[in-house]
Amino acid sequence: MGIRQLDWALLQSFLAVAKAGSLSAAARRCGISQPTLGRHIRALESSFDQPLLKRTPQGQRLTPFGERLHTHALEMAEAAAQIALTAAGTSTRLEGRVRLTAARVVSYWHLPPILATLRRQEPGIQIDVIASDVPENLMHREADIALRMFRPERGDLTAQKIAELPLGLYAAHSYLADRGRPQTREALMAMDFVGYDQSDAMIDLMAENGLRPTPEAFGLRCEDQLVNWALVCAGGGVGGFQRVIGDADPRVVRIADFIQLPSLPVWLVVPQALRYVPRIARVREVLAQGFAELGGAGGHVR
After folding, report:
1. 69, 47 in Cβ contact below 8 A?
2. Residue 209's closest CA among 148, 167, 244?
3. Which pLDDT belongs to residue 215?
4. 178 with 253, same domain?
5. Do the beta carbons of residue 102 and residue 133 sit within 8 Å?
6. Do both 215 and 79 map to the same domain?
7. Which residue range is the domain that position 32 belongs to?
8. What is the 3-state secondary structure (H, E, C) of the chain?
9. In the chain, is it the N or the C terminus that has fewer CB atoms within a 10 Å radius of its CB?
10. pTM of the prediction?
């Protein structure tokens, strides 16, 4: 195969492996078998007559030529994404498929009743839910709509704050039966905490309240928020969670209201090129209405 017949699918596989750092991880993300990805990489290397990737203890890394090709391939991917967005933005039908991404906690607790309502009201719209705590790339059509806990910086994305979800500290009844309910900061600091093994969010929030927990205070840690909450509910210690969820869970009780925790913002994000596509606009509207009932802070969908 000569360079003039270069297949865009091969370059997409190359970009996927470069991003993931391994063939196996890229295969899981793309839904393509690992042998197929390997053949794509070898075909590209054959067409250029030089290696693009090298194996290291840390995974697949770009060669110097691979880095140069990667830069140009990214530009091609961006152009292809813009073409796809332009084409999608011309749709006038209130039907079709919409890819929606949200954090796992939001996807598990908040989205099901909202999307069930949407399906009853708009049976012509199908929803693919991508439950992930890793932000998807909206400009590359990995998703059409995103619910995020931060406002994106890119100017080609439309962002609307649709909710402010208050946070609280919780402990299981079984844990409090043994340790008692803390009435002071000192009593709270003597308790066990359930934390995150990578994020410092909980430690930072406590520091804002003048509390300095030691690493040993977090006897249980897990970055997965669903598992983290299950550990709290099982009596593993004190943990933070959304009040709309924690206050409704009979296994736990909210404690230490003398600690001031912020609210968690929820941003509804969509590429500007898609904001007026009827099915996208309708899903945005239903999402905004649904989250307004949870603790809305946003205005009308624009």
Report:
1. no
2. 167
3. 73
4. yes
5. no
6. no
7. 3-88
8. CCHHHCCHHHHHHHHHHHHHCCHHHHHHHHCCCHHHHHHHHHHHHHHHCCCCEEEECCEEEECHHHHHHHHHHHHHHHHHHHHHHHHHCCCCCCCEEEEEEECHHHHHHHHHHHHHHHHHHCCCEEEEEEECCCCCCHHHCCCCEEEECCCCCCCCEEEEEEEEEEEEEEEEHHHHHHHCCCCCHHHHHCCCEEECCCCCHHHHHHHHCCCCCCHHHEEEECCCHHHHHHHHHCCCCEEEEEHHHHCCCCCEEEECCCCCCCEEEEEEEEEHHHCCCHHHHHHHHHHHHHHHHHHCCCCCCC
9. C
10. 0.67
94 pLDDT more than 90: no
pLDDT tens-digit readout, 234-269: 999 999 999 999 999 999 999 999 988 889 999 999
| Rounded distance between C-alpha atoms, residue 132 and residue 243, angstroms | 21
Is residue 159 exposed (0-12), middle (13-18) or buried (19+ Cβ within 10 Å)? middle
188 within domain boundaries: yes
Six-digit token string for 43: 């075909």
Cα gap 69→275, rounded to integer Å: 33
Give yes or no: residues 216 and 70 share one domain: no
User: Distances in Å between the alpha carbon of 155 and those of 272, 284, 295?
Assistant: 9, 19, 27
Is there a single domain that holds both residue 123 and residue 169?
A: no
